[in-house]
What we know:
By secondary structure, the protein is of the alpha+beta class. It contains five helices and seven strands. The strands form two sheets. The protein has a five-stranded antiparallel beta sheet with strand order 6-3-5-4-7, sandwiched between helices. Strands 1-2 form a two-stranded antiparallel sheet. Helix 1 packs antiparallel against helix 2 and helix 3 packs antiparallel against helix 4. It is globular.
Amino acid sequence: xxxxxxxxxxxxxxxxxxxxxxxxxxxxxxxxxxxxxxxxxxxxxxxxxxxxxxxxxxxxxxxxxxxxxxxxxxxxxxxxxxxxxxxxxxxxxxxxxxxxxxxxxxxxxxxxxxxxxxxxxxxxxxxxxxxxxxxxxxxxxxxxxxxxxxxxxxxxxxxxxxxxxxxxxxxxxxxxxxxxxxxxxxxxxxxxxxxxxxxx
Length: 200
């Protein structure tokens, strides 16, 4: 199901707003903790804070679209530059993430597409009844952090705590996100391990 403008979404906010509607399809990005240099992230947060202060909380759909374009594209651009250790470039780590994404496919959610990039993950999924996006992501990130840290003999934070998510608005937008996921490795000029890219 796509975003329903006639049903008010549940909205929560930390650094980013998170909109939730039952049955919705989501485009999600989560990234490694070291994937964006701290000065750039600080700059991004300050620009976002100023934009939010100027526009207020009651945004029109067009303003929401503009904000998403301005700020999510900047993050995507930085991610594709390959900052940090890029631990997911290692095939074993990439396979842990891919396997975790598929493990509850058809049970807790329907997985539509994913790409495991060197320092971040994009996916499209539709949570099933009684399973929230936040719990799904927490489970995936918690499990994969434990397994990757164990395999690489490291400890500490693996994933950035907060993920980006967006309710897909239309069939056209779903096609756009599928194409974005498919083309992301080429756009970032990276060669991915086998299984890192999936399109249903």
